[in-house]
Amino acid sequence: MSFASRPTRRTLLAAVGLGAGAAVLSACGEGGASEGDGLRVVTSAYPLAFLVARVGGEHVALTDLTTPGADAHGLELSVKQTMTVEQADLVLQIPGFQTALDDAISTQDGENVLDVSSVIELLPASAAGEHEDHGGEGEEEHAEHEDEGEEGDEGEEHDHGPDDPHFWHDPLLMADLADALAARLGELSPDAAEEFTEAASALRGELEELDVELEESFGAADAAAGGRRTFITSHAAYTYLAERYGLHQVGITGVDPETEPSPQRLLALEQVVQEEGVTTVFFETSASPKVAQTLAQNLGIDSAELDNLETRQSEDADYAQVMRSNRDALVESWA
Ligand SMILES: [Zn+2]
């Protein structure tokens, strides 16, 4: 196989002979790229890595910058990782998700970037109807707006706020990104373009099936639980899930897990628990689980785990499996 945009390692070896080829290999290694031939693609969240692996297959050498179980928002890049970003054929970026990656990209020409927000219309960080902490400094003056919003608040615009990066909890948005990714990879490697398109199309089929399955089980839970589909979670990572399936997410903090809840926020949460019969506070291992666990303890209700998918917690569970186990945990909390 040969790529139009960049000679592969194999063609380089053939062109310059084995000795010089070894030097090329070692230069690649210093860049921090993954093993293997193919397009060097960099991601910084597990769902993005999942898409790249499924769409790109053997034609990509994938580097995911996150550490399993760590807070992906707080990603820090080593010098080596910054070089990996610079030297990549393609970097997937969710602007506003990770300052370190945004900064690394801003110092480059950006031509190797696939900006997720150019494919997917990201929701504003406060779109769930809950007036979340905005996550940034200097937003304290908005604190008085953090009363418990009901449906009427959903139309309120916060165009000054950051986008909510967690689009991957909506399988149909994942399918849209898979298609865009296939197109972009196809530009970089025209010989494999058809394979990318076919892989994205097969993946879309799976993601649409997952969507139907989630729709059915959340709908059934709705009927069984008398309309109670409220869930409290440690950081508001599930807005896209809530939007797609008509759930009501109440985040202890906003989309940024580093934000600590105010005493007023905790009082409001207690009210939600009482009024909406919430049985469980959900925590995420990567996002201050203590806050959620303490809240559950104080309110005398259960705590359980949701996986925000920002990093891959277990090699045994892929994207779709985690989506299903999150669904199971939520449905159980309404039983
Ligand atoms: Zn998050």
Describe the structure.
The protein has helices at 9-16, 18-30, 46-56, 79-87, 99-106, 171-188, 193-224, 239-245, 263-276, 289-299, 319-333; strands at 39-43, 60-64, 90-93, 113-115, 230-235, 248-253, 280-283, 302-305. It has 335 residues and is α/β, with parallel strands linked by helices. It folds into two domains: 9-121 and 168-204, Nitrogenase molybdenum iron protein domain (Rossmann fold), CATH 3.40.50.1980; 140-163 and 218-333, 3-Layer(aba) Sandwich (Rossmann fold). The strands form two sheets. The protein has a four-stranded parallel β-sheet, with helices on both faces. It has a four-stranded parallel β-sheet with strand order 6-5-7-8, with helices on both faces. Mean pLDDT is 81; it is low at 1-35 and 127-160. The structure holds zinc ion (ZN).
Q: For the residues shown, what is the average pLDDT?
A: 81
CATH class division of the largest domain:
Alpha Beta
CATH architecture of the largest domain: 3-Layer(aba) Sandwich
CATH topology of the largest domain: Rossmann fold
What integer value in Å does the Rg equal? 22 Å
Low-confidence stretches: 1-35, 127-160
List the ions, cofactors and other small molecules found in this model.
Answer: zinc ion
The number of helical elements comes to 11
- What is the makeup of the main sheet? 4 strands, parallel
**Head-to-tail CA distance between termini:** 54 Å
Helicity range: 40-55%
Order of strands, main sheet, comes to 2-1-3-4
Counting structural domains, the number is 2
Q: Shape from CA axes?
A: globular
Strand content: 5-15%
Number of DSSP strand runs? 8
- What is the CATH homologous superfamily assignment of the largest domain? Nitrogenase molybdenum iron protein domain
Category from helices, strands and their pairing = alpha/beta
Element order, helices and strands?
HHEHEHEHEHHEHEHEHEH
